[in-house]
Amino acid sequence: MKKLINDPQSVVAESVEGFGLAHADVVQVHTDPLFVSRAGGAVSGKVGLVSGGGSGHEPLHAGFVGDGMLDAAVPGAMFTSPTPDQIAPAFAAADGGAGVLAIVKNYTGDVLNFETAAELADADDLTVRTVVVNDDVAVEDSLYTAGRRGVAGTVAVEKIAGAAAARGDDLEAVVAVAEKVVANVRSMGVALTACTVPHAGKPSFDLPEDEIEIGIGIHGEPGRRRIKAAPADEITEMLLTPVADDLGLASGEQVLLFVNGMGGTPQSELYVVYRQARRLLEGRGVQVTRSLVGNYVTSLEMQGASVTVLRLDDELAALWDAPVRTAALHW
Amino acid sequence: MKKLINDPQSVVAESVEGFGLAHADVVQVHTDPLFVSRAGGAVSGKVGLVSGGGSGHEPLHAGFVGDGMLDAAVPGAMFTSPTPDQIAPAFAAADGGAGVLAIVKNYTGDVLNFETAAELADADDLTVRTVVVNDDVAVEDSLYTAGRRGVAGTVAVEKIAGAAAARGDDLEAVVAVAEKVVANVRSMGVALTACTVPHAGKPSFDLPEDEIEIGIGIHGEPGRRRIKAAPADEITEMLLTPVADDLGLASGEQVLLFVNGMGGTPQSELYVVYRQARRLLEGRGVQVTRSLVGNYVTSLEMQGASVTVLRLDDELAALWDAPVRTAALHW
Question: Where are the transmembrane segments (chains A, B) (predicted)?
Answer without folding.
Answer: none
